[in-house]
Amino acid sequence: MRRVLLGTFLVLAGLVQACSAPFLHPLATDRNTVYEASMIGTWKEVDPDDGAKENRYTVTRAESPGGGADRYVVEVRYRPGDGRELATARIDAAHVRLGPLEFLDFSLSESEREKVGDVARMFSLPVHYVMRLDRPNPEDQDIIRLSELSGTWLDEQLRKDDGILRHEHLDQDKLLITASTDEIEAFFRKYGATDEAYSEFLTLMRDNPNPPGRIVPTTPDRP
């Protein structure tokens, strides 16, 4: 049984919870992917109760090899659960816009896959994790909120309609979404604005905020 390698990195880095469902196929396509300069920079994780945490997420631009919209490379500095010194992981991300909704489609960078060795790569799946991107204040581009698809909500929907999103159950009841890219896009277009479908998980604030009132133009949605 192939294991989900990206999930291990994202759980350790605090980006997703262990119960989050990975996608075998991407949500991102050249048609729905955009690039926003306002995402570039270093972001710090903020807890509403405890304030800033030590996790840092540095976003840089990655040119698209296929001529489509550029993507992002996210360098994550995090402290592993065993309390060791801060570790670093590099994750690729595509910025997806579906009408008024925004998402980040995360996948493990090739440099990280190379670190685990050839044998581990043979028995690991190159999966994707999708998180909804919200801006609490649309005019403030220095704070964003990332929300993951709720495993509890998804389980409830699948019990009602097993065909809502093609999937397979892996070992230990781990869910793998096997739907095609078109099916995934249709799913998020239908349920993307349903707040109950997500669990608010991560609030990020820019480490070096833009001057007040400065708004960087965004790339419009593609037809």
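the 2nd protein, sequnce then structure:
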Amino acid sequence: MQELLNNTPEIAEEVMPTEAEPTENNNTQAVPNLITEFTELVKNPYYTDSVDHINEIIEYAQEHAVSLKTAYNSLFAESKYETLRQQAEQDTLTKLWSKQSRKIEALDGGSSLTKKSVNLSADQLETAEACNMTPEEYAKWM
């Protein structure tokens, strides 16, 4: 945390009061608690961008007498949720498209060595894996 404060003076100014500024309610534990709380908050991958919004978060937390985590969620939860939802949706679609576009070269069921191209669905590929079969073996028994 000290490294973060040293590398970003604007955060240090916001978190650390000057001698001329008394802490709110003369609570000498407020600043160390704020630093500890912020340190814990940025450790969580969900809140890593809180560093970019520290001024807003601290202002909201002090104004509404809530934790930094609650302040972050109040300010950014909806947009964060939407971003994560869109990312998950895109990842899912990409995975589905890659599974559906696979083509398998398989031998005919007869004694001939001619190859034919077989398209297996994602479900068929998963079934083949579950049966410890290669896609070619699965295609042969279809």
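The two ends are 61 Å apart (CA to CA). The mean pLDDT is 75.
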